[in-house]
Task: inverse folding
């Protein structure tokens, strides 16, 4: 499981011209689910993400977590994070989980993140053509692979 986490001032997901979900200050989490992912990958990420100290404290140092600033979370599924570009110029997505496996894992990730943070998690819609807008704060962008 791979995530790209962006510290944002605001972010939103639009589907078919309508805003599906939006947040103010917090984390935009792009989530890629691989064919090998399972419950243990969810747990690794869920225990790490809310505790990441990537928000500035009063001294301007990245010393606070999203939970400590009472920030929001927006999670968007993104199979392209599993792209393999080692051969040729057309990415291969063979490592990305198919929807029948990925959707339950995506839903469980959302559920566990909500439980861990005690806040309502905003999300995109799995498989939809989404337009994601964000104002990156910093910019601060962190990548995490649950397998490394």
Result:
């Amino acid at each position: 499981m791979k995530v790209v986490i962006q510290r944002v001032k605001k972010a939103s997901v639009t589907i078919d011209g309508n805003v599906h979900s939006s947040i103010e200050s917090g984390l935009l989490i792009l989530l890629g689910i691989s064919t090998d992912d399972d419950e243990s990958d969810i747990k690794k990420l869920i225990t790490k993400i809310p505790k990441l100290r990537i928000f500035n404290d009063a001294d301007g140092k990245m010393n606070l977590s999203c939970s400590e600033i009472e920030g929001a979370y927006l999670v968007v599924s993104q199979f392209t994070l599993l792209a393999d570009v080692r051969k040729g110029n057309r990415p291969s997505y063979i490592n990305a989980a198919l929807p029948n496996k990925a959707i339950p894992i995506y839903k469980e990730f959302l559920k566990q993140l909500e439980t861990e943070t005690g806040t309502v998690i905003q999300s995109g819609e799995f498989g939809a053509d989404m337009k994601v807008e964000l104002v990156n704060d910093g910019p601060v962008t962190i990548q995490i692979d649950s397998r490394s």
